[in-house]
């Protein structure tokens, strides 16, 4: 339970619920006690619709809700005055409202045209007709309360979630490499290679979630007062091998995707190698296993103490190239394994550099 409460997703969702409750309750109280409304449901309803996950979305959707509700009141007024309220006119109001909801610039909240028509016509048009302006004021009150609550009560910043995804993918990638080393040190079968390939596919799906978090985190800073006070995560002072200074997640995630692709290629190579005949060179096998295991440890735990991986891969390639007893038919396989590991090590080192930059930034902010 404590781990769940520490997760940024849980905290953000809980805050969102509390803000929605606060906005809806405040809008209801103001509508009932300040506006003295006889039907104090429009204000809390629009307040709930307005408290979105980001301040920018609250402003955007709030404006759309206001316009759509005003159109809904206008449609109800026209139909109620000139056609009266009946089954067919009620259906006509819904048809017009739902058709208007398809307009691109109010598409997100356009259904409010139809729902407002339901409230106005369904609650007794003759009694509500003199109060239509009051209904619009209630809608505006609800939107204003929703925006104010989202602005003042811990406006959400979703930077931590993307960092968690990146760290999770790194741990999974490291564990796959460790598992490869353990299997390869003895023997392995096709099913195991298939499991590694499937794990790499699962990492790609998690990476897609990371991209969604990054886009959401970017939006969460628009029109957000906290965004001016809190530096974005993913910014730091160390420059990784990609040459990107102060890398953000837009630079980190493509590198992670490359690492997953090379890991998938490595798994595919090992899967194909299970069908090949012939013995593995013992020296290559032992050195490559040690390198892969240490690479997995370094990737899964950036604080782990291991010898430099890249130099060891270069030395292994050099030693194998000068080995006159090594069959020439094995070089495509050995070269592919070395090349895949070299790409993975370089990419993960870039991501780890950015991780240290994120942590140093968080520690000083």
Protein described:
- By secondary structure, this protein is an all-alpha fold.
- It has 2 domains: 2-152, no CATH class; 159-364, Methane Monooxygenase Hydroxylase, Chain G, domain 1.
- Helix content is 73%, strand content 0%.
- The protein has 14 helices and no strands.
- It has helices at residues 2-6, 8-34, 42-50, 55-82, 87-100, 112-122, 125-128, 132-152, 159-184, 190-220, 249-273, 282-300, 309-321, 331-364.
- The protein is elongated.
SSE blueprint:
Layout: H1 2-6, H2 8-34, H3 42-50, H4 55-82, H5 87-100, H6 112-122, H7 125-128, H8 132-152, H9 159-184, H10 190-220, H11 249-273, H12 282-300, H13 309-321, H14 331-364
Helix pairs in contact: 2-3, 2-8, 3-8, 4-5, 4-6, 4-8, 5-6, 9-10, 9-11, 9-12, 9-14, 10-11, 11-14, 12-13, 12-14, 13-14
Work out the helicity level. Answer: over 70%
CATH domain fold name of the largest domain: Methane Monooxygenase Hydroxylase, Chain G, domain 1
Write down the Rg: 30 Å
Beta strands, count:
0
């Amino acid at each position: 339970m404590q781990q769940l409460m520490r997760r940024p997703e849980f905290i953000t969702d809980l805050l969102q619920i509390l803000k929605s409750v606060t906005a809806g309750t405040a809008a209801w109280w103001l509508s009932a006690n300040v506006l003295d409304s006889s039907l104090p449901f429009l204000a809390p309803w629009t307040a709930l619709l307005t408290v979105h996950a980001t301040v920018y979305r609250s402003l955007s959707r709030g404006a759309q809700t206001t316009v759509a509700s005003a159109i809904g009141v206008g449609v109800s007024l026209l139909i109620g005055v000139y056609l009266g309220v009946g089954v067919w006119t009620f259906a006509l109001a819904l048809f017009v409202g739902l058709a208007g909801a398809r307009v691109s610039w109010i598409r997100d909240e356009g259904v409010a045209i139809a729902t407002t028509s339901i409230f106005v016509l369904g609650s007794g048009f003759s009694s509500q007709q003199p109060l239509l302006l009051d209904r619009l004021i209630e809608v505006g009150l609800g939107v204003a309360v929703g925006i104010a609550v989202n602005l003042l009560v811990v406006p959400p910043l979703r930077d931590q979630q993307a960092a968690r995804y990146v760290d999770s993918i790194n741990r999974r990638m490291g564990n796959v490499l460790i598992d490869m080393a353990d299997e390869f040190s003895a023997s392995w079968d096709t099913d195991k290679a298939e499991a590694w390939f499937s794990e790499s596919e699962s990492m790609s799906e998690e990476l897609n979630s990371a991209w969604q978090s990054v886009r959401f985190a970017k939006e969460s800073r628009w029109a957000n007062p906290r965004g001016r006070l809190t530096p974005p995560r993913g910014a730091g002072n160390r420059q990784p091998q990609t040459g990107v200074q102060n890398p953000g997640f837009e630079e980190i995630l493509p590198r992670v995707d490359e690492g997953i692709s090379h890991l998938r290629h490595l798994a595919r190579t090992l899967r194909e190698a299970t069908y090949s005949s012939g013995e593995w060179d013992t020296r290559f096998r032992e050195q490559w296993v040690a390198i892969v295991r240490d690479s997995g440890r370094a990737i899964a735990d950036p604080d782990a103490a291991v010898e430099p991986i890249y130099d060891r891969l270069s030395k292994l390639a050099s030693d194998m190239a000068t080995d006159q007893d090594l069959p020439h038919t094995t070089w495509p396989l050995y070269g592919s394994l070395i090349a895949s590991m070299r790409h993975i090590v370089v990419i993960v080192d870039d991501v780890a550099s950015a991780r240290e930059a994120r942590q140093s930034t968080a520690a000083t902010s």
